[in-house]
């Protein structure tokens, strides 16, 4: 450190040398400023920015900032117009009251902002063979319960039997509730049922079976099926009755077979007899 130049020593209590700084360029004299405020403002606004100007002990006049930044207003206006044009292009074209689009037939429709979902997973397969069949008989007496959107009819089962690949047995107990739904000219019946199945094993197992589905068809046929006197004369196969069926048990012999399965089938309801396949 002894060979260091004294020019790089910072003055302080230890080193008493005189600091040396680079030479400052000479001051540039300022023009005389008018005393009139209006003239002073016009002259200041017309001045261009000069980085070599050095001012010492001079009061800066007011600067017209609106004039200095007037270019941003034009930029924002163009950006707003551009955004509005893009939004108009993305909006779907309104359709006429007839349901036909006013777009010419040869012109392609605009792209949707969100692409339509496509099936990327395997389609569930259904076996065509009958895997499960159950028949139950309804009790002649039923009860009606008020709900938020109408009434539900609750009916118990008196007897029944079932059979399938997993085994066979009888229906010990259970019941179903049905509710009539009317939307416009469409009449349907929503049915939810619970069955307690018993296997025919020496040590029987008990399985809880639940079904849920809808019965739809011509209104006159549905009303006829609800009438015990007219139900026998109606062909119940003309009524569409689709159900989903699930089962659950705690018995280890059947748990793996039924607890993870879902069955989709058809049902036939005529009079007091209900058949599931």
Automatic annotation (TrEMBL):
Pfam families: DUF3237. Residues 67-114 are annotated as: Disordered. It comes from the Eukaryota. Residues 80-99 have a biased composition (Low complexity). Residues 67-79 have a biased composition (Basic and acidic residues). It comes from Xylaria grammica. This is Uncharacterized protein. InterPro entries: UPF0311 (IPR020915).
């Amino acid at each position: 450190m002894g060979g260091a130049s004294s020019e790089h020593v910072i003055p302080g209590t230890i080193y008493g040398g005189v600091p040396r700084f680079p030479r400052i360029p000479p001051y540039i004299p300022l023009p005389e400023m008018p005393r009139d405020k209006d003239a002073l403002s016009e002259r200041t606004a017309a001045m261009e920015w000069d980085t070599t100007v050095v001012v010492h002990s001079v009061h800066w006049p007011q600067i017209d900032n609106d004039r200095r930044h007037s270019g941003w207003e034009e930029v924002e206006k163009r950006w707003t117009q551009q955004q509005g044009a893009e939004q108009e292009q993305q909006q779907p074209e309104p359709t006429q009251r007839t349901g036909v689009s006013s777009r010419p037939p040869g012109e392609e429709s605009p792209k949707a902002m969100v692409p339509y979902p496509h099936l990327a997973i395997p389609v569930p397969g259904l076996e065509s063979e009958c895997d499960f069949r159950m028949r139950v008989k309804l009790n002649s007496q039923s009860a009606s319960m008020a709900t938020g959107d109408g009434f539900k009819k609750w009916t118990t089962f008196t007897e029944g039997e079932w059979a399938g690949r997993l085994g066979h047995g009888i229906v010990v107990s259970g019941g179903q509730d049905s509710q009539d739904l009317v939307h416009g000219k469409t009449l349907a019946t929503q049915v939810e049922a619970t069955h307690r199945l018993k296997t025919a094993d020496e040590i029987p197992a008990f399985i809880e079976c639940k079904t849920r589905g809808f019965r739809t068809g011509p209104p006159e046929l549905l009303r006829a099926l609800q009438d015990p006197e007219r139900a026998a004369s109606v062909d119940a196969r003309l009524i569409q009755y689709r159900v989903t069926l699930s089962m659950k048990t705690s018995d280890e012999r059947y748990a793996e077979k039924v607890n993870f399965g879902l069955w989709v089938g058809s049902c036939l309801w005529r009079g007091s007899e209900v058949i599931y396949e």
